[in-house]
Amino acid sequence: MERRVDLVQEPGRADAFTLRVGGAEQSHVDLADPSRLVFEYVQRIGDTLDLLRPPPDRLAVVHVGGAGLTVPRYVAATRPSSAQVVLEPDADLTAYVREHLPLPARSGIKVRATDGRSGLAAMRDDYADVIVLDAFDGPVVPAELSTTEAFAEMARVLRPDGVLLANLADQAPFPYLRRAVAAARTAFAEVVASAEPATWRGRRYGNVLLVAGATSLPVSALQRRAASSAFPYRVLGGSDLLSALGGGAPFTDADASPSPAPPGGATYFG
């Protein structure tokens, strides 16, 4: 069945829209101010990116998942001349976004009509400063994107000091995230995670942002940034992360599973 794709204009802002696919809110884009991030988890991506790789330094970024291209637009606005590759298999969705939410001239954003694993496999070693994984198939993260093999491929494409920002989703007691974190830890020396307090406390399903790198991450600085955010969130690393999300068997391609769908038919994901 064909999915309906439409835009909802933000009240009071002529150039700001929410992209919906099949009735679910996928992306928010402010054409007049691409540095303005509205969705809470996207703000966390921006916070983390700005702390780890402060603007305006040029970056090479790979985005696994595109939709409305919110984060690529943010990078282009805050770090002009950055080279960005977006791996988005839904060519029809990309065409719709290009027509109705056009990219600025000379944005440096290139969209490839391919899935994440195939697109990563075609990339050379040590290509990217940052990989942003924010891909959903309907309401779930595709199974093949949170396995040991997937994370190994991402680590290969990243430069030695590169970082992965992976937007995943689950609900306490986090059976999916425990396995995804275990898989990420097979490829990266350090992994931290951030989420809204209500998600950590088990009160709601939510987006959890994994940050992973081959070198140590500034956990204390990330926690200070989280506490000062417009929508405060919690960052867990080290023993705190293992206490919350440890004990899982790593996903592999042989036993991969997608993230759980939001309960109760929620209309927002990723």
Features of this protein?
30% helix; 270 residues; 9 helices; 25% strand; globular; 11 strands
Describe the protein.
The protein has an eight-stranded mixed beta sheet, sandwiched between helices. β5, α3 and β6 form a beta-alpha-beta unit. The protein has helices spanning 40-52, 70-78, 91-100, 116-121, 148-157, 175-185, 197-200, 219-227, 238-245; strands at 5-9, 16-21, 24-30, 60-64, 83-87, 109-112, 128-133, 158-170, 190-195, 206-213, 234-236. It is of the alpha/beta class and 270 residues long. Helix content is 30%, strand content 25%. It starts with a strand and ends in a 25-residue tail after the last helix. The longest helix has 13 residues, at 40-52. α5 crosses α6. Keywords: Polyamine biosynthesis. InterPro entries: SAM-dependent_MTases_sf.
Concise summary:
With 270 residues, this protein is an alpha/beta fold.
Order of helices and strands: EEEHEHEHEHEHEHEHEHEH
Secondary-structure content class: alpha/beta
Q: What is the β-strand count?
A: 11
Quaternary: single chain
- List low-confidence stretches: none
Spatial strand sequence of the major β-sheet: 6-5-4-7-8-10-9-11
Largest sheet: 8 strands, mixed
Task: Outline the fold blueprint.
Blueprint: E1 5-9, E2 16-21, E3 24-30, H1 40-52, E4 60-64, H2 70-78, E5 83-87, H3 91-100, E6 109-112, H4 116-121, E7 128-133, H5 148-157, E8 158-170, H6 175-185, E9 190-195, H7 197-200, E10 206-213, H8 219-227, E11 234-236, H9 238-245
Parallel strand pairs: 4-5, 4-7, 5-6, 7-8
Antiparallel strand pairs: 1-2, 2-3, 8-10, 9-10, 9-11
Helix pairs in contact: 1-8, 5-6
